[in-house]
């Protein structure tokens, strides 16, 4: 397979045996090994280079942060770039973070979720090679895929080699949801993909490049050279270090929470379905210890389960703080929660919440303009249809049927960029 817009190297077969990795299934010899864990594969590429690394608290090798690991190995890290929630992962969703010096390492951290979204040309003058290592959760509205796209574009535009250390997708075992209509493109959805898109970060980068979805200047990088083993003498613009023993059938449990409001695998499994509540007046569980596992509102019947959201780390400001909410609790063991989702986005919770809500005209968050086309639910759904379909009383299967034409087209395209065995 050729990808004509880049010099691409994919690390395939050298295995790191000294590092720890995590998976919910399989014996030790089947244990999933992340791209970051495979140090012998990519360390030779870093020696003698000045490195800039895009990372956060999920960027670990075993129990040690990737930055600390590489520094101990003599890698010269000049800059750290941080995404939404910051380099240490404690900032609120959407909170702007400034630049600072990391106290532990003494390295300057440049926020790419504050005054700027991409490194400047001046930043990149100090580095020879860039590394990207963030843990994704496989949903379109989770912003790290956008951060990766912008970082990839900047690397190509500035002719800086970029090494992407791939990690498993914990929701990578299915594909579902409406494909984004670009009319509703936003910070929580940039590309025409479904809500659950079934690609790792490495695969998604290849999809962006292969489908020419990056910037015009990045698309102008017009060469290809696919090899299976990276070496110090193999030039590249972009390179993926694959995971070992991962497939899209794997049920991967993250060793570190990816952001403050996705504290465990239960929240991650439910997130594709319950994130819709961010477009409503309901609490989606922020300010509790069951984020995206509980949802409710003070106006529901008081014989339902109750919870009271309050400010906490990563959720200092949100809806209905200090108010007793009544509603639903989807929590349970990982296996129980996975059974509730049944391998697809569940609309029934959103539909049931709408039907029971006493003031239906106030259920959806309405923008200041009063124009529902600009509403947050449209940004999450990627269309202006979902809220109207629910309001009109459409069944879940009728709504799902409306997704199928574009979803089927996407599934065909997705197959071209898989680096791992698929779930079907």
Structural overview:
With 424 residues, the chain is of the alpha/beta class. It has 2 domains: 8-256, Uncharacterised protein PF07075, DUF1343 (Rossmann fold, 3-Layer(aba) Sandwich), CATH 3.40.50.12170; 265-393, no CATH class. It contains 12 helices and 13 strands. It has an 8-stranded mixed sheet, with helices on both faces. Helix 4 links the parallel strand 8 and strand 9 (162-165). The radius of gyration is 21 Å and the shape is globular. Mean pLDDT is 88; it is low at 1-7, 12-27 and 222-228.
What is the level-2 CATH architecture name of the largest domain? Answer: 3-Layer(aba) Sandwich
Q: How big a fraction of the residues is strand? A: 5-15%
Tally the structural domains: 2
What is the element string, with H for helices and E for strands?
EHEEEHEEEHEHEHHEHEEEHHHHH
By secondary-structure content and strand pairing, the structural class works out as alpha/beta
Question: Main beta sheet, described?
Answer: 8 strands, mixed
Shape estimate: globular
Summary tags:
424 residues; alpha/beta; Rossmann fold; 2 domains; eight-stranded mixed sheet; three-stranded antiparallel sheet; 12 helices; 25% helix
Topology of this structure?
Elements: E1 8-11, H1 39-46, E2 50-55, E3 60-61, E4 64-65, H2 66-72, E5 76-82, E6 100-101, E7 108-111, H3 121-124, E8 129-133, H4 144-157, E9 162-165, H5 201-210, H6 216-219, E10 238-241, H7 265-274, E11 294-297, E12 305-307, E13 325-329, H8 334-341, H9 348-356, H10 376-381, H11 386-391, H12 396-415
Parallel strand pairs: 1-10, 2-5, 2-8, 5-7, 8-9, 9-10
Antiparallel strand pairs: 3-4, 6-7, 11-13, 12-13
Helix pairs in contact: 4-5, 7-8
